[in-house]
TrEMBL record:
Organism encoding this protein: Paraperlucidibaca baekdonensis
SUPFAM superfamilies cross-referenced by the UniProt entry: FAD-binding/transporter-associated domain-like
GO cellular component, one term: membrane
Name this polypeptide is given: FAD/FMN-containing dehydrogenase
Classification via Pfam families: ALO, FAD_binding_4
Keyword set, alphabetical order: FAD, Flavoprotein, Oxidoreductase
Domain FAD-binding PCMH-type: 14-177
Taxonomic lineage: Bacteria, Pseudomonadati, Pseudomonadota, Gammaproteobacteria, Moraxellales
InterPro entries for this protein: ALO_C, FAD-bd_PCMH, FAD-bd_PCMH-like_sf, FAD-bd_PCMH_sub2, FAD_lactone_oxidase-like, Oxid_FAD_bind_N, Vanillyl_alc_oxidase_C-sub2
Organism superkingdom: Bacteria
MF terms (GO), sorted A to Z: D-arabinono-1,4-lactone oxidase activity; FAD binding; L-gulono-1,4-lactone dehydrogenase activity
Amino acid sequence: MRTKTAALSGWGRYPEVDANLARPEQYRELAAWAQQASIARGMGRAYGDAAISARGTTVLTERLDRFLGFDADTGVLRAEAGVTLDAILHAVMAKGWFLPVTPGTRYVTLGGAIAADVHGKNHHHVGSFASCVRAVELFTASGPMTCLPGTPAFNATLGGMGMTGLIGEVEIQLKRIPSSDMLVQHVPAANLRESIALMHAAEHDDEYTVSWIDCLARGSKLGRSVFMRGHHTDGALSAGPREAKIGLPLNVPSVALNRYTVGAFNAFYYRWEGRKTKPFRCGIEPFFYPLDGIKQWHRLYGKPGFVQYQFVVANEAAEACIGDVLKAVSSAGNASFLAVLKRFGAASDGLLSFPIPGMTLALDLPLRAGTLALLDRLDAIVLAHAGRVYLAKDARLSAASVQAMYPRLSEWQAIRRELDPDGLFVSSLGQRLEMAP
Ligand SMILES: Cc1cc2nc3c(=O)[nH]c(=O)nc-3n(C[C@H](O)[C@H](O)[C@H](O)COP(=O)(O)OP(=O)(O)OC[C@H]3O[C@@H](n4cnc5c(N)ncnc54)[C@H](O)[C@@H]3O)c2cc1C
């Protein structure tokens, strides 16, 4: 089994870690990798160090991408864990099926979607990716096992960040759609209170809801946003999402992103998108995957990279907590123009799954002097409101914070010890956060 060493990082390009890499060509090789210290890696879209092995080999799953079965009548799909959501959409959309839950990029694998138990713009009742997973084939050191919903191994693996074993095959239930078109409507909100109220307003209830939020607005405009709602509508079925034609070939110099340039962009975007108050039709790409429209967009933050900070707090704490976070970010002038506010309803049974009922805010912060200290202040605010930070986006949390944020961590650790008694499946993130002692 050949390996090579390379400097590896997540989508945020921070931290960079020297890693031992292997790329199995055949599905059956997974069993051998599960006998030794390893961690699986999908498309590397987790922002920090989640998909890097701390103790052994990082196993790339890109060649484990076979479709194993799809029933076009029932929408049940079986595939290897390296299959991407993009490939699934190309295989099923023309037949009138779609992903019940999809993150903001379709360039993630089934394995990554399960390990992070990803969430999407879905109605708050829908829940996370776990809601559509029917079975997971997991390779542990003692061999392959089938994890079914409701079992301890399933609940430890969904959201378990790859640290229960190597996910091999996956079975999911897709969702029917009438066409590849969306009917979308935007509503501007002048401040944070209005932004949160829109997410709870019965007249704006829709199949999907999300808000873009202006993180640099201050004073009476703090938390202003554009609320975006939409649903699948009648029309034609396409063969799948169109691939981006434009890309960022080079790193953008980090000075290009500052309070003034990003502030001007945010003010323009707020007015431009806020005008679209009448329902309009669009394809699934701009609605679900706006960032996939520019290849390598993470180069926008320059060579030092960036950190995405995503947290969730209960509804009662949302206005105070999000308000404090926005004040800290806007007064630090740390330029973020990709900021998203979302309402969660259902939590999954995943012991480390991120969603809990409440409001979640995700924002990108370029790495520069003071960013890590600012993020520590944000942790303190989130903890004071009994919130939690999303591990798939994390690159710098502390072990103590994770323990306080994830009350079921010790339950997860007990199941993990049974599945992995020799501590083989530990990522760089898991080591940093002392999740697998
Ligand atoms: C632009 C962008 C938008 C995003 N939007 C959202 C969003 O809206 N909602 C959301 O929830 N997330 C979002 N994410 C995060 C992303 O969905 C998750 O990080 C996801 O896990 C990435 O999947 P991947 O295939 O790239 O996995 P990687 O980044 O390679 O790995 C992520 C984790 O999955 C584990 N893993 C991967 N494959 C396997 C396997 N076969 N077996 C066991 N473990 C495995 C890894 O060990 C690691 O812990 C976004 C990321 C980006 C870059």
